[in-house]
Amino acid sequence: MFSQKSGNKGVSAKEALELSNKYKERANWFTNMPQYNTDSTQYYSSKAIAVLDANEPLHQYKLLELKFNKNKNKYSKFSLNAQDSIYKIEWNNYDKLDNKITENRLLKYGYLVNWANIKLYKGDSEESLDLFEKALRLITKKDVPNVQARALLDKGLYYGLYGLESEKKLSHKYLQQSLKFYKNHYSEYPGEFYMINAELVYYFYSSPKKDSLHYYFNEVKKLLPIYKKPAVHFWYYSMLANYLTIERKFDEARANYLKALVVVENYSFNDHSIHSNILSGLGYIAMEEKKYDEALEYYLKANSLLIELNDNTEQKITVLDNIGSLYEEKGDFKNALKYRKELYEASLAIEKQRNERSLRESELKVDVSNKEKELSQKKNQQLFYLIALGLCIILLVLIYRNVRLKQKSNLKLAAINNELEEKNLLLDKRNAENELLLKEIHHRVKNNLEVVSGLLALQSAQIDDKKTKDAMQESQNRVNSIGIVHQKLYQGKNLGAIEMKEYVLNLSESILDSFGAEGKIHLELAMEKLDLDIDTAVPLGLIINELITNTVKYAFPENQKGTLTIKLERQPENILHLVVSDDGVGKSGVIKGTGFGGQLISLLTNQLNGTMKEENNNGTSVIFDFKLKKSA
Questions:
Q1: Which PANTHER family does the annotation name (predicted)?
Q2: DSSP symbol at 569
């Protein structure tokens, strides 16, 4: 179908590939010192791609590989949202590659790992985990050792991005496993060897194990003569200088900072964040030596770079803080005040970023890395899962056997029934498909929440501390309150709304039962049937859950009996009015929000555009008014 000659110049497919490889080697040559030049690298990379473009699709894999390596550096300067969109669009080209061909499979693996990292930087943790799992499924036990080692390295780097202590330990485990291969082949794979040791330097940076930190610094150092990437050299010198500064070895630290600065300035890395880090380090040393003018000059340069990079990290906080302090030392209080204000604004921005990330992480239903950690740490849980899996397999075998026996005995009847069923399904499919899908989703969510509740109950049974046990019980009740919503949705006829009277009754009885209080607290529901959407029902259920829990714990001490009344009604102007009251001792304090439950109620009340007040007359009454959206 394709001739061996392609393009206007009559170059054969084989010659085109050889020429492209030469251009690729030339492009790689310009990524090293002393000839490092990004424009030349991009130029020869484009030439390598152009040669193969004329032969597409004869060299489809090679062409996509070249484009991926070129664009990976190009796209890194774009915003995370832009990178994500580009990766999503271009995935269509990679997804078509045949997985039976090893080169295609490994190219798709590398693409998916990069995409997963972008998603994680964006904060889309769940989507990132899905992409990363999809990538790992492309690696098989039959792959050669260097591929297996690369997969372990990527797992170590990926889990390290989370920043949590548990994920750091998991990251360290995989990095050490991959190092077993790369330590014996570091001259063949210097890039991979550098990434592992650099990551391990970060891991031990704040650790008391200084011998380990020195070891991994030296492992990077031995690469420098053979690995001429400028970024590796200025990373090594600047990181070593940072460490020496902490150790207060200022002369050695300054010498290494200056070495790093030479690399940065000679090879035009002025737009890299590490440039500002180097300047900040030199500023700190000068400040410690009371050379305030010199320190201020370095810090002002660092701040200018951070502004150009739009960098709102902890480094900016440190730079602004020290600039303010230096101006105060010099008696320039006007400039000191200016930078203190900038410090305050930057601190607020960083705190907002932290809170947003924390919120995104708390919304994850399943965290693959945590599950892997738990499975490796708890042998008894492993045994439980294996037994459960074995029982499931036995059950499936029995079901399969019974189905096969029934099929053999009713073959003719089954054929007729299947034909009729297919015709009926074709008629009903359009109307029923969405409803079945929604019910299945709610059912699965409910089942998953029951699993979470069961795990909390199992964990609680092993805890002796009463406060911790109570906290576990309260968490279990919160999970159950959400689970009941999804149960009502898939069991009911209206998949878009919850009937609140029955829901509140089931929720209240469940909580009273969990605390063994059904005998001492009489429940009264003063409400008519009321349908609310799930976005309103879930936070409302959590509010009611917290208030009932508070009543059980505090309203009736020493087994005192009493009445709990819940009133819920829709008022004019689309106002939802909720009153939860008891005739107990009248010392709730929920509205102050000092505990986790109170904070949760306050947060959920704001989420529902509501107001809250508390009255203590013959007991406690907590009164809410929520401004509902028209769809609720």
A1: ETHYLENE RESPONSE SENSOR PROTEIN, TWO-COMPONENT SYSTEM SENSOR PROTEIN
A2: E
Q: Could you give the CA distance from residue 623 to residue 581 in angstroms, rounded to a whole number?
A: 8
Rounded to the nearest 5°, which phi and psi values hold at 571? -105, 170
Reading the block at residue 105, the tokens are 């499979």
Residue 173 per-residue DSSP state: H
From CA 332, how far away is CA 220, in angstroms rounded?
43
DSSP 51-91: HHHTTTTTTHHHHHHHHHHHHHHHHTTS-HHHHHHHHHHHH
Cα separation of 402 and 387, whole Å?
23
Report field, pTM of the whole predicted structure over 0.85:
no
Q: How far apart are CA 44 and CA 23, in angstroms?
A: 5
CATH 1.10.101.10 fits 241-362, yes or no: no
Give the 3-state secondary structure of residue 249: coil
Domain 500-632 has CATH 3.40.630.30: no
**Which position has the higher pLDDT, 453 or 125?**
125
> Looking only at Cα atoms, what is the longest distance across the chain?
99
Q: What is the 3-state secondary structure (H, E, C) of 305-338?
A: HHHHHCCCCHHHHHHHHHHHHHHHHHCCHHHHHH
Interval 456-497: pLDDT, tens: 667 766 787 777 766 776 776 777 667 676 676 656 666 668
The better pLDDT of the pair 476, 594 is held by 476
Higher pLDDT, 550 or 486: 550
Distance CA 612, CA 599 (A): 12
| Cα dihedral 400→402→405→408 (10° resolution) | -60
Residue 621: enclosing H or E segment and its boundaries? strand 620-627
Tokens representing 152 are 């372990």
Closest by CA to 20, choosing from 41, 49, 42, 40, is: 49
Question: What local confidence, expressed as pLDDT, does residue 623 receive?
Answer: 94
